Amino acid sequence: MRIFMPFFSIMFCLVICTNHAKGQDFLVKGVVFEKGTNIRIALAEIVNKRTQLGIGSNDLGIFEIKANIGDTLYIRKRDMLEQQIIVQGDKSIIIYLVRAVNQLEDVTIKGQSKKQDLEDIKQEFRNKGVYKDGKSSVLSSIFHPLNAIYNLFGSEPKNARRFSRYADNEIKQSQIDVYFNSTIISNNSNLTGQNLEKFMLDYRPEFDKVQYWNSYDYIKYIKESSKKFTDTLGKGK
Q1: Residue 169: partners with Cβ closer than 8 Å, 6 or more residues away
Q2: Which of 1, 25, 63, 190 is most buried, judging by how many CB atoms fall within 10 Å of its CB?
């Protein structure tokens, strides 16, 4: 019997240590996007069901909240469907929220937030040298966008000019993405899966055409173009 005592003692200690480790809260880091777009969602509410503690995402959609493995996090934002996830570990998480309405308010898209972010990076080009050598991972690019931009373009004058062209195009494309994205297209057409992806590639409008459009102009374009696209698919059978 004494032979087995050390074994049981070790197993007991392992169980106690494991349960103790599971009981330790840690910081979970994440970022919130609108599904189907590259738009980051600021001021989304993230609540831990167990602790009832909540925080808001910052201007880049990034948040940090204390949690434990198995905790349920609720993510909420006005006019968007609530999302919930189970914490699996301490790895960074990406959350996609779906817009809850079929049509958006009649607004003129300014893209000021995106523009300001890119202008800030331009200023960094003027103030600093190379920010970091090497390549950035996908998560690193999401949580540290400056790193990814610097790694891509560097700090030489010719690369700064390349970035300026990149920034101008990004601003234009982000304005299109606000309304021409998979969520809004799905809500205003019967397209899904590969057909939806092909439509988004083949019928993506040019900025010069849409720069003065409002939400209703986009939805009208989506409905008319998706019907034309569907008719084309029917002829191909």
Answers
A1: none
A2: 63
Chain centroid to CA 149: how far? 17
Closest CA to 163 of 205, 201, 130: 130
| Phi then psi dihedrals of residue 165, to 5 deg | -65, -40
Closest by CA to 79, choosing from 53, 52, 43, is 43
DSSP assignment, residue 40? Answer: B
Complete domains list, the chain, with CATH: 28-97 (2.60.40.1120), 112-235 (no CATH)
pLDDT per position as a tens digit, 109-138: 444 555 666 666 666 655 554 434 334 455
pLDDT digits (tens, 9 = 90+) for 140-151: 555 555 555 555
The predicted pLDDT at position 127 comes to 59
Ranges 14-18, 160-164, 206-210: which has the least confidence: 14-18
DSSP notation for 140-180 = HHHH-HHHHHHHHH-SSHHHHHHHHHHHHHHHHHHHHHHHS
The terminus-to-terminus CA distance of the chain in angstroms comes to 77
Q: Give this prediction's pTM.
A: 0.41
